[in-house]
Amino acid sequence: MSDSWQFTATLPEYFEAKPLRQFLIQDWLLPKHLVFSLKRGQRILVNQRYLPVNFSVSAGDNIQLTFLPDDFDRPYALVDPDSAATVSVLYESQSLLVVNKTQGSKTHPNQPGELGTTLNHVAAYLAPKHQQPYVINRLDQETSGALLIAKNPAVVPVLVRLVKEKLIQRTYLTWVHGQFRSKHGTIALPIGRDMTDQRKRALDGDHAQMAITHYRVIKQRSDATLVAIQLQTGRTHQIRVHLAGLGHPIVGDPLYAHDVRQQRLLLHSWQLRLPLPFSFDQVTITADIPSTFKTFESTTKP
C-alpha cells in the first residue's frame, strides 16, 4: 500500500489568475480540511517551491500536491481481494478506474470478509500495483455497466463532490414495457420506502425524498421501448420506481414488473462523462451494450 499520493498539473493558457486557496477549493474541489493539511505540511509546491495559499497562481504555473495517510480518517480501503478474472476495465488513470460491472454481481461487500463482489475483484486487479479500490457510487446487483471507482483516498472527496454537484453525467439504457407518448421528458416524483416490502421503494413512500429523472426515447417496438436515462438525483431504485410509476416498468425487473417469461433486468449503465480530478480534462466512457439487450431486441416485434 502507498504511503503517499502525489498529483502534478500545469495550469492551462486560459486559466485566470486567482489565489491558490481559491483554486484548490473551487476548481479542484478539495475540502477545506485537506487544503489546511497540505498548507500545514508545506506539501503544496508551485513551480517546485512551496507557496502560501493566499498567493496567486497563473497560467503556466506547475502545481504539485502530496497527500499523506494522516490527511485522511480512513486512508486505506481494506477490501479483501478476490479473483481479477472478471474485471473488464473501460478506463484507467492514476486516480480512478471505470469498470464494466457484470450483471448479477454486487457492487461492494456489506460485511467484513465478504467476497465475490465487484469491489473484491477490482481489489485483486489493483493489488499488484499496490493500490486499493474506494467505492464512489453503486449499481444495483442486476444492473450492468460503467462503475466508477477511486484508486486512492485523495480523489474520493473530489469525486463525491462531483457526484453531489451533478458534474458527473451518467447515462443509462433500458428496455421498458409499452410505448411512450412523448419522445423525451422529466419525471419529478418523490421516492421513499415501501412499507409493504422492505426490498422495494415506492412513489411517495415512507420518508420520501424528491427524485428527478430525465428520459429520451431511442427506439420503439410494438410492445417495448428503448430509453436513455439521465439522473439528476440518486435515490435507491430511482430509475426502476420512476419508470414503473409511469406504467412502463423495466423489462425483467423482479420487483416492479410482472414478466411472464424468465428475463434478466434490462438496465445498463451506458456512459459516464466526468472531469478528471486534479486536471483540466474531461472524459466520456462507454460500456458496450450487453448481449441480453441484443437478444431481447431480436425477439421483440417491430
The profile of the biggest β sheet is: 10 strands, mixed
CATH superfamily of the largest domain: Pseudouridine synthase
How many extended strands?
Answer: 19
Number of helices: 6
**Nearest-integer average pLDDT:** 94
**Estimated structural class:** alpha+beta
CATH topology of the largest domain: Pseudouridine synthase
Order of helices and strands: EEHHEEEEEEHEEHEEEEEEEHEEH
- Proportion in β-strands: 25-35%
Terminus-to-terminus distance: 54 Å
Determine Rg (CA atoms, Å).
22 Å
Helical coverage, percent range: 10-25%
Q: What count of structural domains? A: 3
CATH architecture of the largest domain: 2-Layer Sandwich
GO molecular function: catalytic activity, acting on RNA; pseudouridine synthase activity; RNA binding
Protein name: Pseudouridine synthase
Function: Responsible for synthesis of pseudouridine from uracil.
Family: Belongs to the pseudouridine synthase RluA family.
Structure, explained:
The protein is an alpha+beta fold and 302 residues long. The protein is built from 6 helices and 19 strands. A hairpin with a 7-residue loop joins strand 13 and strand 14. It is elongated and about 65 Å long. The relative contact order is 0.14. The mean pLDDT is 94.
Attribute tags:
6 helices, elongated, Structural Genomics Hypothetical 15.5 Kd Protein In mrcA-pckA Intergenic Region, Chain A, single chain, 10-stranded mixed beta sheet, 3 domains, 19 strands, alpha+beta, 302 residues, 4-stranded antiparallel beta sheet, Pseudouridine synthase
